Structure formats: structure tokens, C-alpha cells
Amino acid sequence: MNTACHYAIVRFMPFVETGEFGNVGVILFAPSARFFGFKVLGQRVSRITNFFEQMDAKVFRASMHATREELQRVSDMLKGLGTDRRLKTLDREASTHLWLEILKPRESMVRFSDSRLVMTTDPQAKLGELFAYYVERNFVTKEYQEQAMERGVRGFLKTAHLSDRFQPLRVGNDEYNALFPFVALDGERPIKAIKPLRLDHAQPAQIIDHGGQWRVRIEALKNRDLLPNRVMFAINGDNSGESATARARREVVASLRGLGVEVQPANDRQALIEFAES
Fold first, then answer.
1. CATH class of the region 142-277
2. Domain residue ranges in the chain
């Protein structure tokens, strides 16, 4: 049976002046199921400390520790009101009042979003799903990120009144083909193609593997004389420095350019427009 669950997102906002925050947890309260639960970011602090570069990681860890202790106290108070089922019924009025008290605006680094509502048959499982979505961003797959990059390229082309020249198309033949999101045609012959390529993976092996997939595709099309005259890869990720990921990106870029294709940063609007216009 579906149960109404109130939930809120735990937000970390170290610099009130900018209003920037990172999602670090989720709390959930299901009165009908007599359930209260919370999940707060644990050891994986780099996603927050990388964003707030000027902040000491110790400050964030201390804030998370204090937040978990505070939410545990709330959980204990709600147990006393009936969520642990030792009482015959839940004190709805008192527990709802406590829930609203948690969410009140505060002058601290940790704050809560407005209360939201979701229906579920399993509040505990729903808490995990919400955490995975809002904190771990489990929806951000390789395909999702490259679609976002495609939207960026499409926006550049649209503002330059060039979007009508390009269309998504499988380039190749029945034996071998590859899908490019932006292809310009001369009659029915593909003459130019743009492919956004995500290279900002956290691990060097992921960068090399993903770049290598497209190197193989380009090589296969080229060997069959099916490759458009000009191909550009619009990439993301920082190539500078001597980190393992930067070296991996440079390796991928060099291997693609070695096949005669162009590689430019995905945010280089001018380079993309010049390629599309030429």
C-alpha cells in the first residue's frame, strides 16, 4: 500500500555570501508508516571539497558529524512519540511539529530544503533512492553527460544560425556505421560531422577506454572510405598539468588527431562555429 512520505534535502552552504550549496543528505518522514530516517554523506567528501576549494575538508567532516548527531537526536525523540511502535499510535501532532522544526531556516552551514512529498510502499528503500538521486546523482551516466554536451553545441550552432545545416545521422554503410549527433550533407553524402566527447572521467582508464572507442570507430570508417571530409570532436576535461587524468586526455587527443580529425574544447564557441561555417 502506498504511503505518503515527507522528505527534505540536506544542504551544505559554507559561504552564505554566495548562496551556493551542495546536496549532502536526505531526511524522510512517513507518519502513516511510523518511519523516520536519514542518510548523510560519509567518507566521499571530495565532491564537496572540490567545489568549495577554499574550505578546509576538516570543516566539512565536522559539519557532517554534527549533522548526523543532530538527526539521531531527532530520530530518538520521534521514537518516543511512536515511530518505534512501542506506543499504540504515533503522536501525529507532536511528530509533525518536530518535523517542521527541523526544516526551519537556520544560520549554519547545514540547512534543509522545503518539505517535499513522495508516495512509496517502502519508506526505507525510498530514502536510499532519494539519496542516490539527489546526492550521488546516479542519473548522470556517460550518455547523460554527452547529451548535455550536445545541447551546448546545439545552442552554439543555433545562436550562429547554423543548426539547420546539421542533423543526427548514422555515418557509414550496412557493414559498419557510427552515430554522429551533428552531420552536414552535400546531397546525400556526409561531408562534415561534430561529436561531443566526454573526457572528464575520474579515472585515467575510463578516459582512455571511452576515447579509444571513438578512435576505433573513426579508423574503421576511414579504412572503408566512409568518413566525412572533416570531423571534429568537442571534448571536455582539463588537459593541462601532469595528473594521470590529464595525461590520459592528451593521449586520447593525440590518437584522434593522428587519424586526421580535429579536436577542440566543447566550450570553445568560436572554434565550433568556425568549423561549422567553413
1. alpha beta
2. 3-134, 142-277
